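S., here's the first fold you wanted:
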Amino acid sequence: MREHLHALTALGARGVAVRRTSELDAVDGLIIPGGESTTIWKLARTFEVFETLAGRIKAGMPTFGTCAGMVLLADRLLDGADGQETFGGLDITVRRNAFGRQVDSFESDVAFAIDDPAFADPVHAVFIRAPWVEDVGSDVDILATVEVPQAVVERTENAGDRIVAVQHGPVMATSFHPEVSDDLRLHRHFLNLISA
């Protein structure tokens, strides 16, 4: 979360940590960070923000999910923990930890299909225990795909390209961690969604 806050500050935006409903009510948009999706889900229930957050996303609050955040924005989840819930907001099916364990982490340059000259060059993406999108609804834009690394192919027999970034209106998600690089383009794109 700290890295996302630094990225927002570098772009001139004011970011705050959100843990309670009162803090959620004070923001114009939300970034759901990476980490452990089951922990984030359980904490949202413990602090009684789950329903409010899901409702705000459904009502159109700009939201950006990275890695675990992508899992939590998916309407449908594969390989989730028993009883795992998501906030929803994206008509996608996500496979949790699809690219493998921590040891299977990798980096790749990813081309983005965003109509903005800033995305003429690829984004350097860091994948850590990352999910991928299995399928998308008709209203969801696929922003980026990546080829499955050979080590993952050998272990899972899943070859080919996988969807790793999507957007529907003001809600977007990546299966990688843009906050761990100095490239602020995706955070800037998200801020543009808020201002729009």
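And the second, which I think is the more interesting of the pair:
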Amino acid sequence: MTCPEFLVIADNISIIDRFNAERNWVEMYLTRPIPMVKPRQLTQLIGIMGGIHSTWAYKQFEAAVDGIIDFKLDESGEETRDMMRIRNMRNANCDRRWHHLKIKVNFEVTLE
């Protein structure tokens, strides 16, 4: 039996840490949602906030996923800039430089 393809977006799973022990929720994600991606033909984007979890938690997720995309808000100049980079992509070469994201009025996002 084949499953239909789906895109799953969890924009911030860091909130789970608020009511659960870190080790418990990290291991739950590593043993359930992440491994089910390939057999169920899913594309899954998981958002995790930087700077609030232990180094152990970030390293566990980084080792388990196929790629890591970083986003940041650059406030070093006169204008703020939304930035992104592909830090790591398993089995693929990628440009690891920071790129400016241009967000249009209709919320369409393009690389500048």
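Why I say that: The CA atoms of residues 86 and 96 lie 5 Å apart. The radius of gyration is 16 Å.

Talk tomorrow,
H.
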